[in-house]
Amino acid sequence: MERVLVLTRHGQSAFNRQNLFTGWRDPDLTERGIAEAEAAGRLLKREGLSFDVAFTSGLVRAQHTAALMLDAMELTGIPVVRDIALNERDYGDLAGLDKDEARKRWGDEQVHQWRRSYEVRPPGGESLKDTVARVLPFYVTAILPRVMRGERVLVAAHGNSLRALVMVLDRLDSDAVATLEIKTGEPLVYRLAADTTVAEKRVLPRDDAGG
Question: Which keywords are on file for this protein (predicted)?
Fold first, then answer.
């Protein structure tokens, strides 16, 4: 039994390109983001991977990424589960603001705390700790049981919702997760042991077509 779980951050979005805080705002992928998603699918297919089910968030950039990846893998008929539990971290009042302008307004250190710390919430938004509290129960109840049954599972989601999952899978503490970066369109391939811990992890670097 393989117990395969693949996590992939969505391709570049319009807000990523414009250096804006995104959160629960709902921009679609850029041309580069589309290329990243398609390349991720091709890369997984070349690795001999396939999927029985895909999970994604309630936001279009993740849904579009999942669809493009599955199309590239010729897996358009598999079930796709969409749930807001996998949404990006809610940046609250920062959503839609330019990151450089935010640094000018509140200072580098404050913005860094909002973006990278584990417990500090941006005004009106979620901390990473809050995001973990939202993502982890969904993982335990909806995703993990399918992996443990031997289904091959793809999760196409967001930088911070995936940081929450990687924190749990890789057993990272709050200091380690603060420096964790997950690149757009770069698959993380996990194989789980019978006790649900990680038996193997591989990062599949994006090819040139993925940017």
Answer: Gluconeogenesis, Glycolysis, Isomerase
